[in-house]
């Protein structure tokens, strides 16, 4: 059996390792823009191979798959899905584990996902406005003084999201100026390289609460949920600094997290199922691959969709894939034959923690984070109990060089999140940039203090949304407009 893996990040290393554990012993091949040393190592050890190429080029990927005569293709990142790689691979008669372009739009276009939720009345929907030009967006911001989440309308690698609370009337002008400035930045900076969707900026009502990610396998008929993970998006300790693609993530023992109940887990699964059903109806396509809800527990709805993924999160996927006990080849075959309902999905129970190390400059000045030689003592890290997942690193003449994003991740598992976090901390000194450039990471991920902060926030939010549920006002928004009175949405 032969498998072609598309992508070159830490997520793809975790997927490749899952394939290497299969009793069917598939030969793993990969097409990568950067030669990830972890992925390359697995390709060689399984008697497969790899090539440097463009994972977002549908023809290039499909040609490579055809030349290898692979049994199926597994797409790791989102951008190849947005560019129609799954469509082209399937058109050639090769099975692809990955959403087709029309289905992946639930991630690519945040406005499309929001419209879909309102059209099909999916629980956890938020009020929003999408704009195609900066003038209309600024006009809206100037007219309405309200707390907003300002986002690129397209998935932009986790960049460009800013949440602005507008609660004090005496600061309304200042807050309006901040909103306007960031809206312009979204148009001119974060959306400048994208022309594949018409909407440019998304303004959403502000909600607060602990975030978490729910991954699921999907075959077009069945949605099989996986354990919850929480990603930490902000660059620095205590959730401050710019938003990133994720600076580290945690998984608790079992299926849920210490601050999310099983009832909330089950509600989250139902929300993702309904959204999958909605996008399948809208596109007339069957969803075959991985889908994930990036959720937030909010006072308005309880479990609430913030964004959707059409693939495994990175680094969230690396928290759960090492624990997967069900054979991934069996899962892929069941997705292909739409028999996923017969698969018993099983994971080991351990808690896991990942902390990402990034060169200074990430995320806003990636050119400064690129081109630094990196040294990692993987044997020392493994001896301590950790594991290295290589991320944005290229192999050049036998050495490893940073690619401008998060360079690598340290993973550990234990009985508790706190214990796993401590193991990771002991591994951090074994990663260095050889030219003296600084690496940074978040030491607080998985710490007792941060977990307590999440628990306290969840308790406050839970008390409010459960009260709203009892009063039958879950999800409703009530505004008071002078001259018109109460307006209920």
Overall mean pLDDT: 93
CATH 2nd-level architecture of the largest domain: 2-Layer Sandwich
Oligomer: single chain
Low-confidence stretches: none
Q: How would you classify the helix and strand content by structural class?
A: alpha+beta
Report helical residue fraction: 25-40%
How widely separated are the two ends? 54 Å
Overall CATH class of the largest domain: Alpha Beta
- The fold-level CATH name of the largest domain is D-amino Acid Aminotransferase, Chain A, domain 1
Residue fraction in strands: 25-35%
What global shape is seen? globular
What report would you give on this structure?
There is one protein chain. Strand 13 and strand 14 (240-243) form a beta hairpin. The chain is globular and about 60 Å long. It is built from 15 helices and 27 strands. Helix 6 crosses helix 7 (110-119). The mean pLDDT is 93. The chain is an alpha+beta fold and 489 residues long. Strands 12, 15, 18, 20, 23 and 25 form a six-stranded antiparallel beta sheet that branches. Strands 3-2-1-4-5 form a five-stranded parallel beta sheet, with helices on both faces. The chain folds into three domains: 2-100, Rossmann fold (3-Layer(aba) Sandwich); 127-205, ATP-grasp fold, A domain (Dna Ligase, domain 1, 2-Layer Sandwich), CATH 3.30.1490; 211-440, ATP-grasp fold, B domain (D-amino Acid Aminotransferase, Chain A, domain 1, 2-Layer Sandwich), CATH 3.30.470.
């Amino acid at each position: 059996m032969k498998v072609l893996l598309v992508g070159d990040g830490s997520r793809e290393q975790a997927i490749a390792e899952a394939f290497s554990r299969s009793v069917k012993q598939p030969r793993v091949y990969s097409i990568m823009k950067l030669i990830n040393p972890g992925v390359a190592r697995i390709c060689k050890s399984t008697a497969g191979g790899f090539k440097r190429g463009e994972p977002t080029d549908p023809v290039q990927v499909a040609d490579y798959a055809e030349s290898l005569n692979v049994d199926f293709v597994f797409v790791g990142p989102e951008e190849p899905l947005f560019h129609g790689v799954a469509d082209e691979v399937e058109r050639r008669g090769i099975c692809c584990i990955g959403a087709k372009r029309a289905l992946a739009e639930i991630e690519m276009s945040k406005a499309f996902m929001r419209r879909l939720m309102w059209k099909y009345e999916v629980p956890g929907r938020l009020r929003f406005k999408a704009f195609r030009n900066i003038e209309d967006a600024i006009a809206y911001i100037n007219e309405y003084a309200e707390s907003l989440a300002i986002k690129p309308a397209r998935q932009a690698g986790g960049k460009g999201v800013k949440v602005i609370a507008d609660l004090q009337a005496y600061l309304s002008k200042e807050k309006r100026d901040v909103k306007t400035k960031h809206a312009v930045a979204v148009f001119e900076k974060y959306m400048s390289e994208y022309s594949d969707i018409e909407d440019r900026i998304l303004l959403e009502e502000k909600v607060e609460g602990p975030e978490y990610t729910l991954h699921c396998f999907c075959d077009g008929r069945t949605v099989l949920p996986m354990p919850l993970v929480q990603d930490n998006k902000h660059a620095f300790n205590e959730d401050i600094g710019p938003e990133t693609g994720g600076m580290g993530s945690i998984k608790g023992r079992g299926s849920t997290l210490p601050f999310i109940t099983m009832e909330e887990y089950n509600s989250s699964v139902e929300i993702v199922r309904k959204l999958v059903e909605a996008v399948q109806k809208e596109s007339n396509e069957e969803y075959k691959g991985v889908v994930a809800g990036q959720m937030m527990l909010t006072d308005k709805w309880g479990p609430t969709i913030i964004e959707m993924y059409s693939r495994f999160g990175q680094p969230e996927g690396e928290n759960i894939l090492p624990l997967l006990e069900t054979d991934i080849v069996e899962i892929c075959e069941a997705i292909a034959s739409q028999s996923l309902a017969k698969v018993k999905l099983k994971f080991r129970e351990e808690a896991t923690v990942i902390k990402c190390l990034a060169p200074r400059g990430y995320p806003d000045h990636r050119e400064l984070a690129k081109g630094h030689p990196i040294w990692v003592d993987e044997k020392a890290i493994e001896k301590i109990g950790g594991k290295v997942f290589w991320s944005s690193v290229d192999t050049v003449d036998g050495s490893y060089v940073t690619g401008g994003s998060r360079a690598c991740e340290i993973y550990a598992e234990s009985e508790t999140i706190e214990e796993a976090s401590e193991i990771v901390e002991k591994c951090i000194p074994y990663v260095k940039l050889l030219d003296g450039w600084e690496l940074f990471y978040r030491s607080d991920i998985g710490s007792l203090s941060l977990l307590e902060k999440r628990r306290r926030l969840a308790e406050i939010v839970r008390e409010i949304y459960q009260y709203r549920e009892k009063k039958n006002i879950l999800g409703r928004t009530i505004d008071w407009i002078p001259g018109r009175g109460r307006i209920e949405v």
